[in-house]
Amino acid sequence: MPKHIALLLLCTTFLTAAGAPPRPVRVVVATFVQPGTTLTFSGTVQARTLADLAFRVGGKVVERLVEIGDHVHAGETLARLDPSDLSLSEQTARAALEAASADAANARMDLQRYGGMGRDSPAWLPSEYDRRIAASRMAAARLIQAERQSALAHDQSLYGSLAADAEGVITALPVQVGQVVTAGQTVASIAHTDQTEVVVDVPENRLDTVRHAGDVAIGLWATPGRILHGHVRELGALADPASRTFTVKIAVDDAPPGLLSLGMTASVRFAVSGKQVVLLPATALTDQEGKPAVWVLDPVSHRGRLSQIEISGYTADGAILVAGGLAAGEQVITAGSSQIEPDMQLVAWSGAAR
C-alpha cells in the first residue's frame, strides 16, 4: 500500500475517533435594559380654580370697581348694588321685630294677670286660662320669627357689596353698571392665583401613555433651560368635539412663588418606563414547536440549548425585544442558529464578522 494512502486512512481514523472540531458561533450576552417612551405636548398655565362670583340678592348695579385683568386680594370689593331697597327691607324687618316684641310682652303680662286671680276666684275659667297660655306662646313664637327675619334682612343689606373670595385675577365681567341683576347671576369671574397648573390637550391614542407616566417634566418658554416637575392631576373624561383631544391637567410640584403666571406657554414631557427586556438581533430568532425561541450556549457542556422566549416588541431596525425566557448573563447565539444540533460541540466566536 502506498505511504500517502496509509497516512490518509490513519488521519481519517483519528478524526473519526476524536470527533469533529467545535463549531464557532457568534453570541451576545443577555443584558436587561429598561426601554422608555417619551411624549411632549405644548400647554398653557391656568388657574386650578376659576370662580364665578355673584350677588346673593337681586338689585341694580350702581358701582363696579375692577376691570378685566386686574389683580385683586381676598375681601376686596368688586361691585355694589343700590342700597335703597335693601335698606328699606331691613327697616321693615326691624319694625316688625319691635311690633312682635310688644305683642309678646303684652301676651305674657296678660297671662300673668289672669293667673294671679287664682283658681278660687269666681271669674276664673279654665278655658280662658288655656287660651291665654296659647296666646302667650304664639306671641313668643312670632317674636322669634321676627328676630330671624330682622337678622336675615340685616345680612341681605350686607350682600349688596360683592367681594373677592380669594386672591386672583379678574377674567370676565359680564355685568355693566346700571344693569339689574338677579340673585346668583354671574357678575365677575376670578382665577385664583394661589394654585396654578399646566393644561395640555392629548390625542386619544396617547392617553394611556400619559396616564402611566412616571416622570412629568415641565419647561417654560419664559425661562428656557429651567425644568420643573409635576404629576397628572386630572384626565378629561370627554374628548373635545372639534379636536378629539382630551384635556389633561398637570399639577406643578416644585414651582417657586411668583414663577408661574396665568397664560404662560409650557412644554410638558411625559416619560414612561417599560418592562425590562433583552435586546437581540433578529438573526438569533428561531422556533420551537411553532413558538419563538433562541439558542443559548451552555458554557460548561459547550452545547446549544433551545429556549422559548416571550417577545414584547420590535425596534425600527428589526431587532427583537425579549421580555421573558432568558436570564441575565446567558450567551445567546446570534448567528448560525439554523445549523445547530443539540449534541453539537460549539465555541463562542469573538473574531470579526465576515
How would you sum up this structure, described in words?
The model is unreliable at 1-18 (pLDDT under 50). The protein has helices at 3-18, 83-116, 126-158, 207-211; strands spanning 23-29, 32-33, 36-47, 50-54, 59-64, 71-72, 77-81, 161-163, 168-172, 180-181, 186-192, 196-203, 215-220, 227-235, 245-252, 265-273, 277-280, 286-288, 291-297, 304-308, 310-314, 320-324, 331-335, 346-348. It is 25% helix and 38% strand. By secondary structure, the chain is of the alpha+beta class. It has four domains: 20-33 and 276-348, conserved putative lor/sdh protein from methanococcus maripaludis s2 fold (Beta Barrel); 38-48 and 194-273, Efflux pump adaptor protein, beta barrel domain (Elongation Factor Tu (Ef-tu), domain 3, Beta Barrel); 51-80 and 166-191, Beta Barrel (OB fold (Dihydrolipoamide Acetyltransferase, E2P)), CATH 2.40.50; 83-158, Orthogonal Bundle (Helix Hairpins). It has four helices and 24 strands. The chain is elongated, with a radius of gyration of 44 Å.
Which key features would you list for this structure?
354 residues; disordered N terminus; 25% helix; conserved putative lor/sdh protein from methanococcus maripaludis s2 fold; six-stranded antiparallel beta barrel; alpha+beta; Elongation Factor Tu (Ef-tu), domain 3; six-stranded mixed β-sheet; OB fold (Dihydrolipoamide Acetyltransferase, E2P); elongated
